[in-house]
Design brief:
Elements lengths: L2 H11 L2 H9 L12 H11 L3 H9 L3 H10 L7 H10 L3 H10 L7 H8 L5 H17 L5 H14 L5 H15 L3 H15 L4 H14 L2 H14 L3 H4 L1
Helix pairs in contact: 3-5, 4-5, 5-7, 7-9, 8-9, 9-11, 10-11, 10-12, 11-12, 11-13, 12-13
């Protein structure tokens, strides 16, 4: 498909009701058609991977086109310059999280940008840093615990940020790291306890949110089961 055809399809798939719903959830809708997530994913499958088209869709500035761009771009074709340019354009938590989860986490420099962006001042760039941490904690099965332990220090450092879209991403990253395995759960709980002691309403909210989930029986049971499956049996070790 070519750019103009894709934009025409996006417009036909849009819904004023969806646009209104997006606005209620704090999504910027000044340039949006209101295409549902399932419809975007279906269209992305029809298009297939297309790096050049992804660039055109992103440059349109349209919310739905940018979400689609993250779904169809080739991770291997994405370089640091593109990631920085797209990050400068971030103006919505939905585009941030979708782009990080669908595209940026799959790049070779995902961990590098997570650490760098978490230190930035711009609201949505900083959110992207912590969103990447959360996505990597879930999907990067090969990453060492040491990588996520370093993120915990950044999480504690930025936990005083009162901006809503930042503090929610900080909490998300802390919780996902803590749910990765038992060792990281212990360290995440320790970090959350330290964060709770900070003189900040945002920090207390982040810590309370994380501790509630990480101390839940559901999370503990899942992690214990996962640990037992990874532990070699006595018979197999002989």
């Amino acid at each position: 498909m070519e750019y103009r055809e894709v934009m025409r399809i996006l417009k036909t798939l849009g819904s004023p009701e969806n646009v209104a719903g997006m606005a209620r959830f704090g999504i910027v809708v000044r340039n949006a058609y209101g295409v549902s997530a399932p419809a975007l994913k279906k269209l992305a499958k029809q298009i297939g991977r297309n790096h050049a088209l992804a660039q055109q869709l992103w440059r349109s500035g349209n919310h739905d086109a940018r979400c689609l761009a993250g779904l169809i771009d080739y991770p291997a074709a994405v370089d640091e310059r593109q990631m920085e340019n797209w990050a400068k354009d971030f103006d919505s938590w939905a585009v941030v999280d979708g782009t990080c989860n669908n595209l940026f986490r799959k790049t070779a420099i995902a961990h590098q940008k997570a650490a760098e962006w978490a230190k930035r001042e711009q609201e949505f760039v900083k959110r992207a840093g912590f969103s990447l941490m959360a996505c990597l904690a879930v999907h990067d099965k090969d990453a060492a615990d040491a990588q996520f332990l370093r993120y915990l220090a950044l999480i504690k450092r930025e936990a005083r940020d009162e901006r809503n879209f930042v503090k929610k991403a900080v909490s998300w990253a802390l919780r996902q790291i803590g749910k990765r395995n038992l060792r990281l759960r212990r360290q995440a709980i320790k970090t959350a306890t330290e964060i709770h002691a900070l003189d900040s309403a945002a920090a207390r909210w982040i810590a309370s949110n994380a501790l509630r989930e990480l101390k839940s029986e559901k999370v503990q049971l899942r992690l214990r089961r996962a640990a037992s499956l990874r532990r070699p049996s006595l018979a197999s070790s002989r």
